[in-house]
Amino acid sequence: MGDVRTEPPAAHLVLDHHGPDPTPDEVTVLITGFGPFLTQFPINPSHEITKLLPTTILPDPSDPTSPRIRLIIHPSPLPVAYHPVATLVPTILSAQNPDLVLHLGLAAGRNYFALERSSVRIGYGRNKDVLGQRWTDVDSDRQWPSHLKAFTEGDGKLCSYPDRLATSLPFEDIWRRWRALCADIEGVGDGPSSSATFVTTISTPTPIGVAPSATSTSRPWNRVDVRPSDDVGSFLCGFIYWTTLAWFWARGQQRQKEEMEKEDSGVQQSTTQQQQQPPASTEDEGQRPVLFLHVPGCPEERDLQRGKEITVAAIRAMVASWLGQKRRREKEQALAV
């Protein structure tokens, strides 16, 4: 367990006395949801919520720095199947090249919405997917070799993945913003864990063929709450989150490699020239602008509508926090010159 603390005020930053920071005209966010995976949920609410989302979220009129947000909503539900997801998700990411990614998935047995912080490389062989297949640790080692089983590329450098990856977005700040935005949504109230505390003891989402408990999502609730979590589970929710985190991580590694090759080949400017100019941008290095949102069962239309509003709030929080993070980096780079 660990406290979720909001980021401290940026009092140490140089203030811009020429008005608000400029904001990009548009920020793109890729959104996905899953298809059915339990007999109790023949229609997965995660995809049903994505279908209700607008294609554009207009800037907040009270915030002059807020951008227009364009949602790239994957039109069909992703199959709850390991191997198709492992192939399809990198293809979608490469084709769309979004600024941010938000995956939605159902957590059977939970009656709250939760933003997840991280996911792991191995451990997905426990439950079969809807195709009756498993994703073993051997599959993970082949797809994302660890530092213990790294392979050697042609240039002799090791290529390896860590065993856990977390979002590079300011998670605590997003959680604070999300909770504040959800305060005005009807039926959303503080639950026992909606204070600034991580949920780390939630069990793995119910696997295929296992009925959820009688107290789970088979009926509507009077109120739901929103929570931060670091327990995405070891089924397809954790798997798709890891797959996307790993895609961004590998892209950052590749860009670092390309920069090193430029240095080795002497393409970059001389040391004297480099000292006279700002350092090269490292914005993309190590950046994983991804989050996963666990949603509860939504048995009625009003539950889905509420889920849509909660998801829009999460998207607004992600974008605002991401832009704040970018501005801080730019100011820090400017001060370092």
Give me a quick take on this structure:
Keywords: Hydrolase, Protease, Thiol protease. The chain has about 325 residues and is of the alpha/beta class. The protein has one domain (about 30-210, about 215-255, about 285-335): Aminopeptidase.
Tags for this entry?
single chain; 337 residues; alpha/beta; Aminopeptidase; seven-stranded mixed sheet; two-stranded antiparallel sheet; 11 strands; globular; disordered N terminus
**Which structural category do the helix and sheet elements fall into?**
alpha/beta
Shape: globular
Got a strand count? 11
CATH fold name:
Aminopeptidase
Mean pLDDT: 80
End-to-end C-alpha gap:
40 Å
InterPro entries: Peptidase_C15-like, Peptidase_C15-like_sf
Organism: Phyllosticta capitalensis
Family: Belongs to the peptidase C15 family.
Pfam families: Peptidase_C15
Report on the structure:
There is one protein chain. This protein is an alpha/beta fold and 337 residues long. It has a single domain, classed as Peptidase C15, pyroglutamyl peptidase I-like (Aminopeptidase). The chain is built from seven helices and eleven strands. The strands form three sheets. Strands 2-3-1-4-11-5-10 form a seven-stranded mixed β-sheet, sandwiched between helices. It has a two-stranded antiparallel sheet with strand order 6-9. It has a two-stranded antiparallel sheet with strand order 7-8. A hairpin with a 5-residue loop joins β7 (151-152) and β8. α1 crosses α7 (301-336). It starts with 25 loop residues before the first strand and ends with a helix. Residues 1-20, 153-157, 191-220 and 270-285 have low confidence and may be disordered.
